[in-house]
């Protein structure tokens, strides 16, 4: 066996002949020595203090990077959870505002189609020339500002709801309209000649003539404070409406309520009659403010 070498300087071929067993043994010894040297060099490199120090630093660096990644993931998860919680609170505010809005629409008798809280508000606009992404800090600030605005709007709507509710309650308890369903106004409030005595005197109510037995109705919500016979009025009913108002219905033929009953506006409380000082079937109607009779006409006309 011959090993051929190419000379780099002269470009000539050289060869070594391996004809004898001793040559093979020498070749194996040379290769074994080279392999042992490489192995020893690697072992020495691994046992070198400087190399061990570098490996330790690399391991520490990798461990710290892993800890940083775990911490970043936890912070990211916590941030997402916090944003989800804030969005849930904002959604609760929006739901309450929708409920208050629907109630205000009903109370104010606004067209539901004009303010439909079940539909997304229609908005839009041309796309701007420059757009920038919102970072996390800006997003948190925007959410905080939105939560503050929603809370402010909710408080304002709550006040508005209270005002409308109070207004509606006042409308229910303030007298308005006529105390009969059919009939005509036969005598006004003010000075007149009394139809029985003929003397001039103050008429502290208005009279509505009607058919005997016709319905007498409450002109506002209230509580019955008197239901019985009173001199001059015949069978009479007094209703306290609160806020200083009382209404009185006299000369009835039959009473349909008792003291302590609560009645709604338009509820029938009696039947038209001619009891007491009367010349025919009618209702003597009075409105009292803080115990004093006032002209009922403005309350009668208020229903118009």
How do the helices and strands line up, and which of them pair or pack?
Layout lengths: L1 E5 L6 E5 L3 H27 L1 H60 L27 H38 L10 E4 L2 E4 L6 E4 L2 E4 L5 E3 L4 E9 L3 E9 L2 E11 L6 E2 L4 E5 L9 E8 L2 E3 L2 H6 L2
Helix pairs in contact: 2-3
Task: Give a written overview of the molecule.
There is one protein chain. With about 300 residues, this protein is of the alpha+beta class. The chain folds into three domains: about 1-45; about 75-115 and about 140-175, no CATH class; about 185-300, Glucose Permease (Domain IIA) (Distorted Sandwich). Helix content is about 45%, strand content about 25%. The chain is built from four helices and 14 strands. Helix 2 runs parallel beside helix 3. The mean pLDDT is about 75.
């Amino acid at each position: 066996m011959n090993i051929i070498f190419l000379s780099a300087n002269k470009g000539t071929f050289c060869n070594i002949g391996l004809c004898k067993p001793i040559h093979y043994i020498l070749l194996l010894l040379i290769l074994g020595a080279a392999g042992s040297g490489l192995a020893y060099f690697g072992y020495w490199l691994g046992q070198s203090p400087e190399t061990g120090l570098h490996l330790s630093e690399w391991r520490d660096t990798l461990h710290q990077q892993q800890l940083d990644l775990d911490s970043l993931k936890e912070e990211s998860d916590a941030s997402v959870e916090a944003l989800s919680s804030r969005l849930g609170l904002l959604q609760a505010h929006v739901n309450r505002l929708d409920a208050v809005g629907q109630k205000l629409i009903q109370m104010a008798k606004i067209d539901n189609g004009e303010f439909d809280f079940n539909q997304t508000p229609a908005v839009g606009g041309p796309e701007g020339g420059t757009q920038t992404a919102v970072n996390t800090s800006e997003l948190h600030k925007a959410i905080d500002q939105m939560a503050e605005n929603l809370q402010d709007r909710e408080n304002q709507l709550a006040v508005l709801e209270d005002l409308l509710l109070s207004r509606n309650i006042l409308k229910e308890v303030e007298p308005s309209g006529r105390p009969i369903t059919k009939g005509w106004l036969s005598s006004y409030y003010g000075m007149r000649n009394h139809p029985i005595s003929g003397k001039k005197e103050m008429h502290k109510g208005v009279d509505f003539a009607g058919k005997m037995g016709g319905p007498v109705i409450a002109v506002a919500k209230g509580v019955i404070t008197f239901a019985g016979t009173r001199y001059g009025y015949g069978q009479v009913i007094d209703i306290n409406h609160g806020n200083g108002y009382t209404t009185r219905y006299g000369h009835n033929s039959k009473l349909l309520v008792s003291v302590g009953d609560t009645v709604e506006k338009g509820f029938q409380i009696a039947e038209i009659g001619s009891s007491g000082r009367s010349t025919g079937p009618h209702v003597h109607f009075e409105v009292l403010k803080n115990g004093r009779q006032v002209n009922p006409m403005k309350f009668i006309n208020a229903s118009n």
